[in-house]
Specification:
The protein has helices spanning 5-16, 21-28, 33-42, 90-100, 131-143, 184-190, 194-197; strands at 160-162, 169-171. Among the domains are: 5-43; 131-201, no CATH class. The chain is elongated. The protein is mainly alpha-helical. It binds a DNA duplex (11 and 10 nucleotides) through residues 2-3, 20-22, 31-42, 46, 48-49, 109, 153-155, 178. Pfam families: GcrA.
Amino acid sequence: MSWTEERVETLKKMWSEGQSASQIAKELGGVTRNAVIGKVHRLGLSNRTAGTPAPEPQPAEPAPAPRSAAPAQAAPATPEAGPEPEPGTADTAVAEAEADAPAKATPASRRQIIPAGQPLPPQPSANEISPEALASQREVEKRARKLSLMELTERTCKWPIGDPATPNFWFCGLPVEQGKPYCEAHVGVAFQPMSARRDRRR
DNA sequence: CCCTGATTCGC
DNA sequence: GCGAATCAGG
C-alpha cells in the first residue's frame, strides 16, 4: 500500500480528530501504526505531546465568517459510542466481580476476574440472536482458545461456550476488544441494539 | 501486559 | 519517502 492522496487525507483527518496511530492504521489497512506515525512526522503534523496547547491546531476551514452568519454547527456526530451498556447482564456481572476482588494478595497481573462460584455471564439463547450473528459466532468459536475459568484475564474474551454443567465448557479467550469484556465477534452478539433483539419470539 | 507517540536508520 | 525496530512513557 502506498500513501495515495486519499489515504493521506484520511490520515490527516483522523489524526486531527485525535485518533490514535493504531486506529488510523486499522482504518486504512495495509499499514502498521508505525507507518502511520512515520508518515505523520514526515507530514510535519506531529505536535501532540502533553503540555503543548497546540497554538494553531487545525484551521481546517478557512472562512471563520466574521460575525453574524449562522454558526452552522457541524457536530462530528460519531456513530460510535452509542448507548450500548445493557445493565443487568454479563457486563455488570463481570464488572462487579472485578470491583469486589479483594486483590491485596494478588500475585501479579495474573489475577482472575471471576471469583469461583460466581454466576456466569448469560448465554444468549440461540433464538435471541440473528442467524448471521449466530453463524459468525460459530466460526469464532472454532478459533476460541478454550480457556478455563482460571485462565481468564482482563484481556481475554469472557464469552462462555458450551454447557457449564459439563466438562465440555470453556471460554472464548480471544483478545478482547479494547475496554470490552469480549472479543470483537462476541461484542457483536453481546451488545445488540434493542431494535435488533426485540421481539424475536421466545 | 497492553497501549501511546517519538526516533532511528537501513532500504 | 518509507516503515520495522526500538525507545520512552502511561
